[in-house]
Design a protein that fits this description.
Number of helices of chain B: 10
Radius of gyration of chain B: 18 Å
Order of helices and strands of chain B: HHHHHHHHHH
Distance between the termini of chain B: 17 Å
Shape of chain A: globular
Largest interface: A-B, 57 and 52 residues
Strand content of chain B: under 5%
Number of helices of chain A: 10
Shape of chain B: globular
Oligomer: heterodimer
Strand order of the largest sheet of chain A: 1-2
Helix content of chain B: over 70%
Chain lengths: 229, 200
């Protein structure tokens, strides 16, 4: 039962994109079409699961002071692996994802899970957490991509939807549409959960993987430290 | 003259048309996180320009003279991120020791930039676009300036927004994203400017 909870945690309750608001860059950029979204989501899931497992295995070996560089090396290794596999077997998708595939390295979700989960839990739980978070990321991307592609381009995964042909909203597939749909989707989640989900109140360092580094930062305060000061 | 025109074209493209934040969605975290106040936003922007130029100056020769001739181009991602991370730490230490005044104004932003996707993105894009060293540096400068411009504009918007009262569900992040959408819409209007000024 507990294992299942670890898995579903990432899907809904702590959805990395819609609740924790991490990994905004790939979410906004790759949600133009359903196919892009699925490819990006699965690539990130693969990297996240593998890196979570390896980091969890190495958690007693990696010295605490240099842990972030170590995590980055592990993550970058798996990203390179995914890049090479995709270039060899799925060259079209590789072209479409472009630079964003390499940028999985600096995706906050992956570094964040390594820092917050994998270095404290065993391999099995870390793998489940990686899968759950990865699928949560994919689901959120998919939700955005469906809205943007169906309403903006009158198609679904490349197939035309005939009756919407004359009612396209092209701006939704353009960059401004990304911000708009993302904003509205988060607002919707807030409204449905009525504040029950641990939604972030504002965009600050809470949940940012580099937070432990720049705590000394004047504007990098969580609400508690602000209240103390 | 021809070179100058090309440089101008690269800068205009990366500042206005392909703005890294507003149309390529790179560096969204600092864009949304550090844009509450104008002075913080401009400080962050300047630090990003600095790191982008430095990162390009180091990664371009590494790719061209070290990785490519030895057939190790596939190590790009892993080498670039490590080089950038080490570089930023190193610069922070050097600034702290020798130029404390500069460290005081830029230092706080440096750790935040280490894992910024805009910096890694610009170094990789320079290689993919096949720019030579000078063009790469100019393109990085343009991207940095575009980032600064977006940050400063958005900080202005947000200072006004703080006083407004959106519907309950929209408070916080959602309304910020909707505002970013409108700023991005403004930049969308620059779409054809470079081709009409400089030709294809």
């Amino acid at each position: 039962m507990k294992k299942l909870k670890v898995f579903t945690n990432g899907l809904l309750k702590e959805n990395p994109v819609l609740v924790l608001v991490l990994g905004t860059c790939p979410t906004l950029a790759m949600s133009v079409s359903v196919i892009n979204a699925i490819a990006m989501g699965l690539a990130a899931t693969a990297v996240l699961t593998c890196s979570n497992m390896v980091i969890s295995l190495l958690r007693k070996i990696i010295p605490d002071t240099v842990r972030i560089p170590c995590y980055i090396v592990v993550i970058a290794g798996f990203v390179t692996l995914v890049q090479m596999l995709m270039e060899a077997y799925l060259p079209d998708l590789y072209e479409m994802l472009g630079v964003y595939l390499a940028l999985i390295v600096v995706n906050c979700i992956i570094l964040g899970r390594a820092e917050m989960f994998a270095n404290k839990h065993n391999v099995g739980e870390s793998a489940l957490d990686g899968l759950g978070m990865g699928f949560g990321f994919t689901l959120a991307l998919l939700a955005m991509a469906v809205i943007r592609e169906v309403l903006g381009n009158a198609s679904f995964a490349g197939m035309k939807i005939a009756f919407l042909e004359n009612f396209k909203i092209p701006i939704l597939t353009a960059p401004p549409g990304g911000f708009l749909v993302f904003g509205c989707l988060i607002a919707l989640v807030t409204h449905i959960t009525r504040g029950k989900a641990p939604l972030k109140k504002s965009f600050d360092c809470e949940g940012c993987p580099s937070a432990s580094f720049c705590r000394k930062d004047p504007f990098c305060k969580t609400e508690e430290t602000e209240a103390e000061a | 003259m021809e070179t100058f025109k090309l440089m101008l074209k690269i800068i205009m493209t990366s500042v206005l048309v392909n703005n890294y934040v507003l149309s390529k969605f790179l560096g969204i975290c600092p864009f949304l996180g550090v844009s509450k106040k104008l002075d913080q936003a401009s400080g962050m922007g300047v630090a990003v320009i600095f790191v982008m130029l430095l990162a390009t100056a180091v990664t371009w020769p590494i790719q061209t003279y070290l990785l490519d001739p030895n057939g190790m181009g596939y190590l790009q991602t892993i080498v670039f991120i490590l080089v950038i991370a080490a570089l930023v730490q190193f610069v922070e230490i050097v600034l702290k020791k020798y130029i404390p005044s500069l460290h005081k104004s830029l230092g706080v932003y440096l750790p935040l930039i280490t894992t910024n996707c805009a910096v890694l993105g610009v170094t990789i894009n320079n290689i993919t676009d096949g720019y030579n060293f000078l063009e790469s540096m100019v393109s990085s400068l343009g991207c940095g300036l575009g980032f600064l411009l977006a940050m400063v504009l958005f900080a202005g918007v947000r200072e006004r927004m703080e006083e407004s009262e959106p519907p309950k569900a929209f408070r916080g992040i959602p309304i910020t994203l909707v505002a970013a959408s409108i700023v991005s819409l403004a930049f969308y209007g620059f779409g054809g400017i470079v081709t009409s000024l400089f030709g294809e």
